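Summary: Need help interpreting a holo structure output

Steps to reproduce:
1. Submit the protein chain below together with the SMILES for S-adenosylmethionine.
2. Request a joint structure prediction with the ligand placed.
3. Inspect the structure token block that comes back.

Expected: a single structure record containing both the chain and the bound molecule.
Actual: see attached output.

Input attached:
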Amino acid sequence: MARDTAEDWKRIGETEPWWGVLSAPEFLQANITEETKERFYAQGRDEMAWVMETLAQHFGAIKPDVGLDFGAGLGRLSFPMAHVCREVYGVDISPGMRQEAERQAQRREIQNVRFVDTVPDNLQSDWINSYIVFQHILPRMGYHILRSLCATLNPGGVASVHMTFAHDSRDNNTLVRDLLSWRFDGDTLTALENNEHRPGEQSMYDYDMNVVLMIFARAGIRDVLLRHTDHGGAHGYWFFGRKTH
Ligand SMILES: C[S@@+](CC[C@H](N)C(=O)[O-])C[C@H]1O[C@@H](n2cnc3c(N)ncnc32)[C@H](O)[C@@H]1O
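--- attached output ---
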């Protein structure tokens, strides 16, 4: 049976929301301090400054009205988006994450971000953003989600979306955890049986970039810029693009 990653994130949001976003020991509940939390948000501001600069350099100045941050977590990236958008929707499946994100928005007097569990019906957006999220969702579901996010984009709207496509030997955690038996023919690894799932753990998956590029192309996002990421053996790309039609 396929892993229920939504259930995993619900549990992580209740138990270790900060570590669930940035998995370093200083973000565990036992260690976290107000100072570390500020560093957590400062890192998000730096990341989004780079994202905005990259979008502006390659696709021209951006003036988004409505922003959509998919897998918003604790608002680390939604808050900087709220500085340049009139309104931001931070979509996250985990109630614990959304609750803490709302608390943090209040503390920071940020009033133009709404944290919601799904993309609101008929939403039209000018910027879709997602970072270190799709990697945790089974690709067969992730492709549908990506399509639905792209469908919200207005012509001229921009995308900054991170997707993983391969792992190297430094990170075989999900593989070792999930495979009970497999078939390897020298080229292709096929799972035969899965280990029993222990809910509440993070998983890492790899997307087929042909499918991803086709989704962007069909959505009218045809000029795409890629920037490589490597998180300890998990290889991904930031996709930057603008919807032209
Ligand atoms: C590693 S965190 C990243 C949070 C945020 N993007 C950041 O960089 O600060 C991944 C987030 O994606 C959320 N998530 C996972 N699966 C999701 C889904 N199917 N729909 C919406 N959110 C999801 C999790 O609850 C979690 O908050």
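--- end attachment ---

Reviewer comment: The two ends are 40 Å apart (CA to CA). The pocket of S-adenosylmethionine is lined by residues 5-6, 9, 13, 20-21, 44, 71-73, 76-77, 91-94, 97, 131-133, 136-137 (CB under 6 Å).
Status: needs-info
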